[in-house]
Amino acid sequence: MPFLISDEVGVTEGAVLETINKAVKVGFFDTRLYEEKQVLTSAGIQRRFFEATARRKCVYYEESLLLVEVNAYINLVNVNNNEVNVCNNSKNVDNNQQRKVKESKGKESKEEKRKKFAGARLQNSLIPVIQHYQTNIRPIANQVEKDKLSAMVDDFGSEAVIKAIDRAVLRNKRSLAYIQGILQRWEADGYDAPGQQYKVNTPDPERMKDIENIPF
């Protein structure tokens, strides 16, 4: 073992042995197991190991090397014992937990895909609106202006926003606020052309459909 460690970290075997001996001397490793079996371990190391592996299906151990009480752990198998592997007969809590985690990740993955698809769809709808706005109104000055256009597309649809831009140009009212006002008026009162007025009780989905079909 000293040779393997010294070769790995690039120090002499003597330095490795000196470090190990000092660690044993101060109680970092168990003296008896080191002297009798050349095993570096301690009660603290074993306790932390068994606690960390408590949810594994099986953990194998050698009784002659134990320094802690293991009766509290139900997933341990003595490698020197020929009894039936108790792990095969116990309820596999770990597998159930892993399955739940996988199902949760699957749901999260589907939700992420849905959000990405919706975002991409909105972005694709926004591109022609931005182009139409910059061609007919003015170049977009900042991110705030772009975000407002994006919100309009999200609320009313790209076709309706483009038609509202055209209406603003027709009336020589080239401002984002005016375009927003047109969209809100169309949503509330209907398109202001003969034969396109809504009734008071017209459902919102029908209004949105009519807005998108405005023959501008």
From TrEMBL:
Protein family (similarity comment): Belongs to the DnaB/DnaD family.
Domain DnaB/C C-terminal: start-end pairs: 132-191
Biased composition regions of type Basic and acidic residues, renumbered to the chain: 100-114
Protein name, per record: Replication initiation and membrane attachment protein, DnaB/DnaD family
PANTHER family (alphabetical): PRIMOSOME, DNAD SUBUNIT
Region of interest (Disordered), residue spans: 88-114
InterPro entries, A to Z: DnaB/C_C, DnaD-like_sf
Species per Swiss-Prot/TrEMBL record: Megasphaera vaginalis
NCBIfam families from the UniProt entry: DnaD_dom (TIGR01446)
